[in-house]
Amino acid sequence: MDMINIVRICAILMVFLVFSGLMMSRKMPAILALPVMALLMPLIAGVPLFSEDKSTFTIANNVLTQGSLRLGATIMALIFGAWFGEVLKKIGVTEALVRKAAELSGDKPLTMAIVFFIIGTVIFSSSDGLGMVILVGSIVIPILLTAGLSPLTSCIVLLACHALGSLFSVSGWALMHDLYGIPVTEVARYAVLFAIPAAVIYLAMVIWMVKREVVVRKAWSMPVADSLNRRRQVRALALITPLVPVMIIFWFHMEVVPAICLSLVICLLLALPKRPVHVLVSSLVEGIQNVAGAIGLMVGIGILLNAVTAPQVTLVLKPLITSIVPGSALTYILFFSLLSPLALYRGPLNSYGLGSGLGVLMLGGGLSPLATMLALRSALLVQGLSDPTNTHNVWASDFAKVDVNDILRKTLPWGMIAVLISMLMAGYVAF
């Protein structure tokens, strides 16, 4: 390796560390940091800005233009998924599920927490955006507080079911397909399999936290009873609709967008809303508004992916990546289990941040697509539950008046245990 390449590696690593620090300290959001990194890395590696030769890899054409379109399928899955989630909200399925959970659990705090955990997982499997978290959380958290749980535990119940439900997010499956080329049906199969240890650990965490609390019933200032009494009658069959897209993809091997379109039709047939056209149109508009930030993030991730896969960047970084890529099942398990906290703060193991680029580089370093996908999906068990930069963590902590870092401290050990078990499974499957 010559001196020029060593200098370039050091400069690229410096860019990586500086922007990681900016994102961790919340001084620059990921939606802006990722594209800026994507411009600086190829510049350092010697990629030209422009070229009259159309076959030349350039920042303007290949990184910016083609990169912004790279995750187009994922963005469409995100939009259609948000549309479906908004339809469920408008026709009353989401509120009906929460209400049914409250009725089934009675006034026992532990039973209530477990039932809400299960129902919440079902709800968030269909839509895991901030709007759905606010809708569910603004009902669930006050009910749990009234039952005697602490604000911190109430938040953790909500965030645990959200983290588990998001493993079944069809837009997340589409992202894994775009990044690693694994068919969506295969991604779905592994998502179901690897959700089992997460479900067991998260549920054990909820039970442990509820049982060790001294239950003291308390009042809550928000009019929860009124929101539950203003109920829209929803047919019992319509309550299964949040699971319909997952079942269609899993059983009929259908792609994400047509699966959601079919799910919308089934949802309307089961629920029979009074103004179906209005529900569809307004839900589409509001759904796009809800995921606008996520769409911007996906554009940034696509630009970063094309930047790190530029021939010049790959040539510079390949010796470094090859030296750190795990070569055996044991090192693979230990590497990703111990470093799983690096998925926090949009870090290098976060598929919705720097991890998207690192994962593609690891493919070039010799790690198989399946092993890479399973490792980064496992890291999400920490990120989805504990990350203080998650918008749903920030909202829940603010709503219940707790410190978002207290959530991190309480949940991180549990998340790392879930990652370890998942990585043991991944090591067996991928090696």
From TrEMBL:
The chain crosses the membrane at residues 6-24, 31-51, 71-88, 109-126, 132-149, 156-176, 188-211, 232-250, 256-272, 284-308, 320-345, 352-376, 412-430. It comes from the Bacteria. Keywords: Membrane, Transmembrane, Transmembrane helix. The keyword Transport does not apply. This is Citrate transporter. The lineage of its organism: Bacteria, Pseudomonadati, Pseudomonadota, Gammaproteobacteria, Enterobacterales.
